[in-house]
Design a protein that fits this description.
Ribonucleotide Reductase, subunit A; globular; mainly alpha; 13 helices
Length: 380
């Protein structure tokens, strides 16, 4: 059973949850600091005036307030994000000359960045939705600002995809004229990929309304661990300077996003219910399946793809590798993805959360056979 929308109307809220909301805790602190809820020394006229203000129907971004630990880890990471902002336009794009690559190599690079865009291109709207949701649920101010900083970073990551694809091929990766069978198959793969992306977006949009913030952040952590792993690995292996620099920049951002998730979960995980722990186990398995498209190879659980998809995908990655992009071989990807999952496993098991089995990379754990892939949350 998933949680419904939270409401701040006092009567209905008290029947839904036993614990006070973040906003209610803040209100209680303010009342205590000011010497009482109604103002014991106030006249009846003043108390009546205060009581006359209509209640604000929730969820809503109003009333405005800024509660939370302004000196804590999440707040510090937000400040760090301001200092580490970089501009994709400043990369040496003139060094990425289409004439330096064969047409098949350009096709491979365009294809790989189109696959990446399925994840990084969805990042801005995904985290923007999460930011708005955190305002409506009156989450602590550092958490809301952290979502904003991640959204801003993801815009940069999307721009790297955009600039690379546009410079080497076309500004519209799903709309161009193939000149041979291999190009036609690559175009077909990209279109199938974005069809699956559209399924993810619908599921995410609905899931955002249902899950508590701790479940959301556990799913975000999965995506950020995956992204950090991918970009650091590729940056080390890339031989072209533009690819190497952009991957390093993106990897640095993703490492900070991962730190934000871990710092936030330090506050939320100790308070998890058994129901939430079980839900997180299923979400971790769903995240592995979804993110394996870019980190490893796509399992069948979620992805609806034509039979030829994987063979074409592998050929495109080989072409991108030849062009100096730094795409890891399948054996390396499997080991890197495996080690990344061990990191997540160590985090969640510390709080009594069962880690799901991931036989694709040789990790044993709880068998998860019933995952609603219409409710998949992880982002990149």
């Amino acid at each position: 059973m998933l949680r419904g929308e939270r409401r701040f109307d006092r009567q209905s809220w008290s029947t839904r949850v036993s614990e006070p909301s973040a906003w209610e805790r803040f209100e209680a602190e303010q009342r205590a600091a000011s010497g009482g809820a109604g103002g014991e020394g106030l006249s009846q006229v003043v108390r009546d005036l205060l009581a006359d203000v209509p209640a604000i129907e929730q969820p809503n971004i109003y009333p405005m307030e800024w509660h939370g630990d302004t000196e804590g880890k999440v707040a510090q990471l937000y400040e760090r994000s301001k200092r580490e902002v970089w501009n994709p336009a400043d990369l040496p794009w003139d060094q990425l000359d289409p004439a330096d690559f064969s047409r098949p190599e350009r096709l491979g690079v365009m294809y790989w960045y189109s696959v990446l865009a399925n994840f990084d291109g969805s990042g801005p709207p995904v985290f923007a939705k999460a930011m708005i949701h955190s305002y409506e649920q009156h989450e602590p101010d550092p958490v809301r600002k952290a979502f904003f900083s991640i959204t801003r970073d993801e815009i940069n990551h999307e721009e790297v995809c955009q600039r690379t694809i546009t410079r080497l091929w076309s500004p519209t990766p799903t709309e161009w004229q193939p000149k041979n069978e291999l190009e036609a198959l690559a175009l077909r793969n990209i279109r199938w990929l974005y069809y699956n992306g559209s399924r993810y977006w619908r599921g995410y949009s609905e899931a955002l309304k249902k899950y508590p913030i701790e479940v959301l952040f556990s799913s975000f952590m999965m995506g950020e661990v995956a992204a950090t792993t991918l970009f650091h690995t590729m940056a080390r292996q890339a031989t072209h300077p533009v690819f190497a620099q952009s991957l390093r920049n993106v990897g640095k951002d993703e490492a900070r996003h991962m730190a934000i998730c871990l710092a936030t979960l330090e506050d939320y995980f100790p308070k998890l219910s058994e129901q939430d722990k079980s839900l997180i186990t299923r979400q971790l398995r769903a995240g592995f399946v979804f993110l394996s498209m870019i980190l490893y190879e796509p399992p069948d659980d979620f992805w609806k793809l034509p039979p030829e998809y994987l063979s074409v995908h592998r050929e495109m990655e080989e072409l991108a590798r030849r062009a100096g992009l730094g795409v890891a071989t399948l054996d390396v990807k499997r080991e890197v993805w495996r080690q990344a999952m061990f990191k997540v496993k160590a985090v969640v098991e510390r709080y009594g959360i069962e880690f799901p089995a991931m036989p694709e990379v040789g990790i044993t754990g709880k068998e998860v056979t019933q995952v609603d892939f219409d409710d998949i949350i992880p982002v990149f």
